[in-house]
Each structure stands twice: as C-alpha cells, then as structure tokens.
Amino acid sequence: MNAKDILGTAPQQGEGTSADGSQPAWTREEFEAQLRAKGTAYHIHHPFNVKMNSGGCSREQIRGWVANRFYYQINIPLKDAAVLSNCPDRETRRRWVLRILDHDGYGDEEGGIETWARLGDAVGLSRDDLWSLKQVTPGVCFAVDAYVNFARRAPWQESVCSSLTEMFAPQVHRDRLASWPEHYPWIEPSGLAYFRSRISLAQRDVQHGLEVTLDHFTRREQQERALEILQFKLDILWTMLDSIEKAFPQ
C-alpha cells in the first residue's frame, strides 16, 4: 500500500455495516477468531521484514529500519495518551496508563523508548542521528501521524481495537531474537533487549485490548467495523515498511 492511501483507509464512523443490516453477531469466540485471522496481513510477512530476518539486509538497511521505527516508538505514548484522554472509565485508564509507563519509563525503569535507543547504539547509530529523526522518511511520518490522529479523534474503544496488532507481535520479536545473532553478529547482543522485553508486555496488553474489544463490539455491524479498524492499523505498519524499503534499497 502506498503511504498516500493511508488516510483513505482510515475507517469512518458508520462504515462496516452489513448490506441488509440483519446478519447475526458472531459469538465472542467467532469474533476473536476473525480478529486473529487478520494476522495474515501483519508486517511480519512484508518482503522487507522477511529479508531482514533471513539475513539479507545490509548494515545501512538495518540502521535505516531502526531509525524509522524509532519515530513509531516515540509516538506510541502519544497514541496511548489520546486513548486515556477520550476514556471516561477509571478502571480502564488505570490499566491503560501502564502502556505509557512501559514506553516512557518511570523511576529506575528506563522504558521502551530508551531500550530502542540502545538498539540504535548497537547497530551503530549515534543518539544525535536517532533523536534528530533526520533519517525518518516522509512515508513513515505520514503513516505514524495518521495512526496518532486516529486515536485522538476516534472513540476510545476503537483506538483500543486498533492496538490489537499486538496479538501478532510476540512472534516477530521471537523471530528477531532467533535470527539476528546468527545473521548480524556485528550487532551487540545487549541491543536486542527491546525485543525480549516486549514479548510478555505485548501478551499482557493484548489480554486487556481483547477484553475491551469483545465487550464493546457486540453487534455484527460493530464487529465488522472492528475488523476494518484492525486492518487500518495493519496497513499503517505495512506502509511503514514500504517506505523504508524504498528509502534503503541496499
């Protein structure tokens, strides 16, 4: 998908209704299965990611990917803060705020943004290069900004639903932990700590996100809309890799 298509794919209120409006809702189990089936479109299957995990990327490509994904990382707390600002339910906020702390850090916990910056160190990016965002492509900026703006404007339950790409994230982290030390021995192993930490955190976050989604999207037209929202987020992630692949061809 081209980056310019992202705003066109953002689901709009009222879309996703059945043609005759009479289809029965899926059961919770059926609905969850439909959500999980979207994993076939996860960016783990993108040609650039496949190439990266099979050892086919150059140092420049790895560094370009790390630098561009950093823009996504630093925007995740903004997305999660948008969810909080739109959510009137205290118990949900008490659980959701952990996501911000996970990324920004707190107390002695350095957080995911710093851990990703350490990945940048490990692949040979200076902190100035990383934080300047000078390697971030316009396509990545466009895609990430579209995601944050969706979270700001959408009902909080829809923003929660969009986060369910995390259902598929543990596997991509396991793949990197398994393949990178062999294919990229020049990367300092300590730099892979982000991938290791996100496996358990993503599983925790998915449990909460699924609870909200399965509880809120109960009518068939709502469930179909939820699938469109999840597809929108999948398109965001795929488009980011499209842009990175084009900017760093070798």
Would you give an account of this structure?
By secondary structure, this protein is mainly alpha-helical. It has one domain: Heme oxygenase-like (Heme Oxygenase, Chain A). The protein has twelve helices and no strands. Helix 4 packs antiparallel against helix 6. The longest helix is centred in the N-terminal third of the chain and has 28 residues.
Quick one: CATH superfamily?
A: Heme oxygenase-like
Mean pLDDT: 92
Total helical elements = 12
Name the CATH architecture.
Up-down Bundle
Strand portion: under 5%
Described by strand count, sense and barrel closure, the largest sheet is:
none
The residue fraction in helices comes out at: 55-70%
Approximate shape: globular
Order of helices and strands: HHHHHHHHHHHH
As a whole number of angstroms, the C-alpha radius of gyration is 18 Å
Task: Describe the structure concisely for a colleague.
This protein has 250 residues and is an all-alpha fold. The protein has a single domain, classed as Heme Oxygenase, Chain A.
